[in-house]
Structure formats: C-alpha cells, structure tokens
Amino acid sequence: MKLGRNVLVLSSTVFFILVALFSWYYLFPLYLKELGATESQIGLLYTLFTLSFTLLQLVGGVLSDRIGRKKCIVWPTYVYALALFFTALSGNWLGASIFYLAGNLASAVQMPSFTAMVSESTERKGQAFSIFETFVAFGLATGPLVGGLLLPFISIRGLIFVTSLVVLLSGFIRHLLLEER
Q: What's the CA gap between 111 and 31, in Å, rounded?
C-alpha cells in the first residue's frame, strides 16, 4: 500500500496535535471561567472560535492555490504553536481567548491544504483519506483520555503548554518531510 510520505506525515502529525489539543479542549471553558470569564462571555467566545475557524478556510483555499500546499500547512503550524504558548502564558481570560482565537485562525488556513495535499499525494485517494480521517478520529477520541490521565499531575495551563510544544515539533516535521507536488 504505497500512499506516499505526505499522507503519513500529515496523518501522524494531525493525530499527535489532536491528542494534545483534546487533552484540554473540553476543559477550556472551565479554564476561561477560572481566569474570570462569565458564562455568557464563554458562550460568545465559542461562537467566535467556531466562526473564525469556518470562515478562514475560504482564505486558506485561495492561499493554497496561490502559494502552495506546504507553505499553507507549515507556517500556520508555527503560528499555531506560538499562539498556544501565549494562550497558556495569559493570566486573564481575554488574553487567553485572543491568543487561542489567533491559533484557531492559523489552523483554519491549513484545512484546505490538508485535503488537497492528501489527494495529490497518491492515486489511492480512498485509502489515503480513510487513513488520514482514522488518525483524526483516533486523535479526537484519545485526547480526552490522555487529558484525564494527566490532569491530576499537570494543570490545564500545563496541558496547553505541552500542546504548543507538540504543535511546534509537528511544524518542524512537516517542514522537513512534506513534499510539494
């Protein structure tokens, strides 16, 4: 089953990023509340987070065609890592939310390039997408378990720091190993 390096690199890095992210993602509203956000503000923020992730994918698609898939995957990965680092450093809900939103925007830019690169990396498109999506699903499912196991030893802030490191490492791996077609 020759699926190509890009499919394997994207699948594995997305898996590890999602495990790290979802180790704390469902706890983030509690963290924001701990930092002083009200329940109404948290509801508004999550609407903003979701809208930003949705709308910037349109920009990501245009950029992917203009400047290339690899650039639209690698550089937003670095921005995302930095944004998560500052999310964890923020001492108040507004700062944490702004940095998380910035990371979310960077992540959204990548999405069209993931699909395009997986598709362009092999003739076995069905297999490639099934592997990629399986890694996504396992990352989403495994993250909360990992968070539940680590939370007694590390705070939500600590989990966010770990996620920024995982994302940064994934950025380096993508930078070194992804091939533009």
A: 27
- For residue 2, what pLDDT band results from cuts at 50, 70 and 90? low
Q: Which of 87, 91, 88 is nearest to 158 (CA)?
A: 88
Helix ranges, the chain (H)? 5-21, 28-34, 39-67, 69-89, 93-120, 125-150, 156-177
DSSP code, position 3: -
Closest to 178 (Cα-Cα) out of 87, 95, 75, 88? 75
Burial of 117 (0-12, 13-18, 19+ CB in 10 A): buried
CA torsion sign for 126, 132, 136, 139 is: positive
Nearest to 116 by CA among 67, 172, 168, 50: 67
In one-letter notation, the amino acid at residue 54 is T
Q: Which residue has the tokens 């939103």?
A: 101
Query: In angstroms, how far apart are the furthest CA atoms of the chain?
Result: 51
Per-residue pLDDT tens for 29-73? Answer: 999 999 999 999 999 999 999 999 888 999 999 999 999 999 999
- Give the per-residue pLDDT at 159: 98
> Which tens digits make up the pLDDT trace of 107-120?
999 999 999 999 99
